Give the backbone structure.
Amino acid sequence: MLNAHHLRFYCCLIMGCLLSEGLQAQFGGRSFRQSSRNDYATWTVPEWLKGDTFTFVRIQYTSGGYGRRGRSWSNDYPDADWNFAIRLHELTSMAVDPDGKVMTLTDPELLQYPFAFMSNVGNMTLSPSEVKALATYLLTGGFLMADDFWAPGGWENARQEMKRVFPDREPQELSDDHELFGFIYDLEGTPQVPSIFAWQRGEVFEYWHGDPQGDEGPHFWGYFDDKGRLMALFCHNNDIADGWEREGENSEYFRLYSERVSYPLGINIVMYALSH
């Protein structure tokens, strides 16, 4: 089990030194051009740590509602994944794989990785084999973070897909005083991150995903196992990974969302998942 008090001290100290100086320009800043791995920091994990290395795993599912890049599993990929790995490497004491992985739910090797990330689940339809594999992954100790889905329709789709995964389990909404929101970094209220495109239009809700029907606020829905372990976290009305992806594109967006919300929350989620 990780020591949360030591992690909190270490992470907060380094976060203040790095992010407040705006070092995002050193790593990101692709300025809407094609991503290149050479634009992002990399490092070599020592051989003796390779068995204890954290790897950010993005799930590639078979459907998505939209065909082009960024509208299904690949939303914010690969820049969000690379930037988040960099910040985990800088701001925690973990050994971190700089490249991460893209894996399918049905890949047997997925069971070797304790953390998985999915995007755009408001459009997702899982195959029967993916449904079975996701249930196995979560019930055998895996953790899923699902991000970037909006409006009641997006949550209803995600909820129905999870009903196929766990017919007898209902999601529970996490209150803003849940341990996760203060596990390493103390976050005020319930965190919400709009995409940089919504923010540039003066909005905090991504209306192109559907009518909010009067509810534009963030929701964090959890699925728990029989022992009360949080297995899956669905971050509704949020685009947390855009704060990772876009950290080098606009200094104000970086300060408001990458530094204050996306990275602290992402680190909280990973550390919480690995500690429970």
About this structure: Residues 30 and 36 are 8 Å apart (CA to CA). Confidence is low (pLDDT under 50) at residues 1-14, 20-32, 66-70. The chain has eight helices and nine strands. The longest helix spans residues 251-275.
